[in-house]
Design a protein that fits this description.
Order of helices and strands: EEHEEHEEHHHEHEHEEHH
Number of strands: 10
Biased composition (Acidic residues): 258-279
CATH superfamily: P-loop containing nucleotide triphosphate hydrolases
Family: Belongs to the ABC transporter superfamily.
CATH architecture: 3-Layer(aba) Sandwich
Protein name: ABC transporter ATP-binding protein
Bound molecules: adenosine-5'-triphosphate
Strand content: 15-25%
Region (Disordered): 257-279
CATH topology: Rossmann fold
Domain ABC transporter: 42-263
Radius of gyration: 20 Å
């Protein structure tokens, strides 16, 4: 990942045209699929003239630009390449072809608990995670009470996160991510974790992030929250951009509004609708 010049400064006068926040230009990412794990199995497979490894193109020639302040829902079926694209944008991974350019500081949540150390306490992990996201110790100290209040893990703040439930883990990670001053916020299915009150709090916070002019790029399957929070939908299909444009058209494109959904899927959708309207 390369950085675009001139990070957004709060002191800068508002430009006539929004600055470009993210450029994804002809990006491809290939993964190696290892069929045999041990040396013995590899040797046996080679003797039997079986394939020991293969490659898989998770992203193929993906291109788009995002203006500063736009809020994008990255959608698509399981395995279509959403998380991989998010990792390339956040700089966790490098593309094999093409380039990704971003402007300013990036924060967000790529994987629940990524960068957390099981043996360290919630408090220690907040400081470590915040440092990874580019916050100084003083900055973290100043925001610590807000981060702790948002995570709301109570007395568990001073116990090792290895003893946390998966929801508590997610709350802590999300809480640090949303308290970082950033220009781009990326998030992978944040609303898929946590209980209902926490989901509500996350959505509210994400709305605040959006309203503050931060570029948002997040993966979701929830049509109602996309309608509420996004200006644009990008749909990935087997690693390629299948759709890029208006939100309502994007949801239609995905058939997420079809009335012949399975009952449990319809329930999930109406819960999402309810959650979005609750806020
Ligand atoms: N490190 C890796 N090694 C090999 N294959 C990988 C790796 N990471 C991802 N893949 C493969 O790349 C494809 C895209 O994965 P990715 O996680 O980006 O999809 P996704 O759209 O986020 O899926 P989901 O909705 O299930 O989270 C999948 O087939 C996955 O198995």
């Amino acid at each position: 990942m390369t950085t675009l010049d001139h990070p957004v400064s709060p002191a800068a006068p508002p430009p006539a045209e929004p600055l470009t926040s993210i450029v994804v230009d002809g990006v491809s990412k290939e993964f190696a699929l290892q069929y045999q794990r041990t040396l013995k199995k590899i040797a046996l497979a080679k003797l039997r003239k079986q394939k020991v490894k293969d490659t898989f193109l998770a992203l193929e020639d993906v291109s788009f630009k995002v203006p500063q302040g736009q809020s994008i829902a990255l959608m698509g079926l399981n395995g279509s390449g959403k998380s991989t694209l998010l990792k390339l944008i956040s700089g966790v991974m490098k593309p094999d072809a093409g380039q990704v350019l971003t402007r300013g500081r990036i924060s967000g949540l790529i994987a629940t608990g990524a960068g957390f150390h099981q043996q360290l306490t919630g408090r220690e992990n907040i400081f470590m995670n915040a440092a990874i996201l580019g916050m100084s110790k003083e900055e973290t100290e100043a925001k610590f009470d807000d981060i702790a209040a948002f995570a709301d893990v109570g007395r568990f703040m001073d116990t090792p996160v290895g003893n946390y439930s998966s929801g508590m883990f997610a709350r802590l990670g999300f809480s640090v991510a949303v308290h970082v001053d950033c220009d781009i916020f990326v998030a992978d299915e944040v609303l898929a974790v946590g209980d209902r009150p926490f989901k509500k709090k996350c959505m509210k916070r994400m709305e605040e992030i959006r309203e503050s002019g931060i570029t948002m790029f997040y993966v979701t399957h929830a049509a109602a929250s996309v309608r509420r929070m996004c200006d644009r939908v990008i749909v990935l299909e087997s690693g390629k951009v299948g759709y890029d444009g208006d939100v309502d058209e994007g949801i239609k494109y995905l058939h997420y509004d079809d009335s012949d959904d399975e009952p449990d899927v319809a329930d999930e959708d109406s819960a999402d609708e309810e959650l979005a309207s609750d806020i």
